[in-house]
Known about the structure:
It is built from 2 helices and 2 strands. A hairpin with a 2-residue loop joins β1 and β2 (28-30). The chain has one domain. By secondary structure, the protein is mainly alpha-helical. Strands 1-2 form a two-stranded antiparallel sheet. α1 (33-57) runs antiparallel to α2.
Amino acid sequence: MSELTPPAGTAQGSPAGEGSAATTEGSRLQIPFRTIFWTVVSFTAAFWIAYLVLVVFGPQSDEAKTAIETLKTAGTSGIGTIFGLAGGALTGGNGGSQAN
């Protein structure tokens, strides 16, 4: 039987994936904290901008009201996520990771 080779970028894979921003270590994807943080900030800002646009310029239909509430909930959740990520970074939290 032939051996299966793991995909590039895994712990046993080819060196082509080494040094990239998102590499895998075993079966875990390693993404830099800044990438995650700024992605969350960007999405949160987009939710709040869309919320404000719908509140100011949107129609007063039931669908628009539902969208407004959904955007408000997503924006509020994003703010909580930002505080959680920042708090974890400031206190040295490992995000629930366990050392082997």
